[in-house]
Amino acid sequence: METVTLRNGVEMPVLGYGVYQVTQEECERCVLDALDCGYRLIDTAQSYFNEEQVGAAIAKSGVRREDIFLTSKVWLEHYGYDAAKASVEESMRKLGTDYLDLMLLHQPFSDAYGAWRALEDLYDAGRIRAIGISNFYVDRMVEFANFNRIVPMVNQMETNPLNQQSELLQWAGKYGIRLEAWAPFGEGRGGLFENETLTKIGAKHGKSPAQVMLRWNIQRGVIVLPKSTHRERMQENIDVFDFTLSNEDMAEIAALDTKTSQFFDHRDPAMVEWFARMVEERKRNHDGASEKKSW
What we know:
Blueprint: E1 3-5, E2 11-13, E3 17-18, H1 24-37, E4 41-43, H2 51-61, E5 69-74, H3 81-95, E6 102-105, H4 112-124, E7 131-134, H5 138-146, E8 154-158, H6 166-174, E9 178-182, H7 196-205, H8 209-219, E10 223-224, H9 231-238, H10 247-254, H11 269-294
Parallel strand pairs: 3-4, 4-5, 5-6, 6-7, 7-8, 8-9, 9-10
Antiparallel strand pairs: 1-2
Helix pairs in contact: 1-2, 1-9, 2-3, 3-4, 7-8
């Protein structure tokens, strides 16, 4: 597996397995399959509700913990210094580990600064090998890089041929921040798996459009997190290190950029309100569960 070097010298696999929307029932089996296929970067999050299943798979896999690059993310309801710090400890407990390779702030809202200070202190204590952010658009990323003691090492963003994040990639490079792609296939939206340009380039190299998309991002220096619950697709997605896209190929893919999210815009005020409502709803559900449990 090829790696990239983060700004603090930590080596991180350039391709990993993400478990977003992988159910608790399937997660353990999927992570075991991914590790068996050769994946060594596993990406989860508190809000995915499958950290325990990821931890169980790692424990059963026979792969040494130090050979796995394990990522999780702090969710909004745990922002602020004390809550974030406690939530990271809880994530480690669920994952069955006493350290994390990378911990991200999942969203750019609420008391992100307080949560970041918690990650900085855990990083200083050696509990987290690298810290970063997720869904921080270019202005918020630059702000965060300039107004914190430790510059983020990674920014995980939606990055695919229809939303290429070229400006973000340029500014991330200025600050030594690695861009990491969630939804590198755009979940197939916009017809990416059937796209004529990607299909043509793939045919030239004997590869699928999905493999072309992954290779394209890797050649841009972007870490990729493809997800599939099917072992054969996992194997296909990791089989992208035996070919190279030409400059012409890269230019043709660059021309596909619409600079538009295939999902939602974190700068949309209505979307910010949606996130706030979700946090409040989860708090109510958690308080209700705690109250019932106390009975």
